[in-house]
Design brief:
Elements (H helix, E strand, L loop, with lengths): L2 H4 L3 E4 L4 E5 L13 H4 L4 E4 L21 H14 L5 E6 L1 H12 L4 E7 L17 H13 L1 H13 L5 H12 L3 H13 L3 H4 L6 E8 L5 H10 L3 E9 L3 H4 L1 H13 L1
Parallel strand pairs: 2-3, 2-4, 4-5, 5-6, 6-7
Antiparallel strand pairs: 1-3
Protein name: Alpha/beta hydrolase
InterPro entries: AB_hydrolase_1, AB_hydrolase_fold
Keywords: Hydrolase
Amino acid sequence: MDVLKRNNVRILGHGNQTLLFVNGFGCDQTIWRYITPAFSEQFRLVLYDHVGSGLSDRTAYEPARYASLDGYALDLLDICQQLNLREVTLIGHSVGAMIGMLAAIREPHYFQQLLLLCPSPCYLNEGSYHGGFERRDLEEMLAFMDKDFVGWADYITPFIMGNPDQPSLTAELAHSFCQNDPVIARKFARVTFLGDNRADVTQCQTPCLLVQCAEDVIAPLEVGDYLQAYLPHARLITLPVAGHCPHVSAPTETLSALETYMAA
């Protein structure tokens, strides 16, 4: 298997330090274009697509491998090994943040720090834990996705993006969702939204920056508080913005948070 072809790996920029970007669900590497220009002169940038999205090799999808986020973490580690990466700064969004964390737990020597945008180890409300969703609501959402993938994308993206005053961003996200292989995307959605990686969090010894948004229906504030409490080496920043994709809707504020942390 050609790992770089499988995940459509691209390398941009200049510099001795590497930034490795991990997309969230439904997105490909182009989702980072609002912040990558600011990094490209100083850093080497590695971007890639999850199998089933973007220009990845969709024939490489193996249901057993990708039945949990561990399979996606193995893809990430394959890329690190193929490119002989060491001490990288990983920037992950949403489920991509958790994929990055799982990779760092398994092979910490690859990673210097994890910069995690709107991460969540579990989207379900369970006991005292508030993940944001009741199981019934998630099952109904996934059933809608199975029935009408395009209709689901049009319905869900306004909630994910927030910022109704910027409808072009919502339309862009919906278009990105619809570029995915729908069969793979439906399976990835179940792995993402019904998974529970809370037990993994305390095993992460890599320093983490947690960037959350003040108004985020996908990863509410309680999730950030939970992660800060259970991650051994974490700093939490709450941006005064809305939505689940601050690197798209609030790139200036997001860049400021990332650059300040990296410069410390």
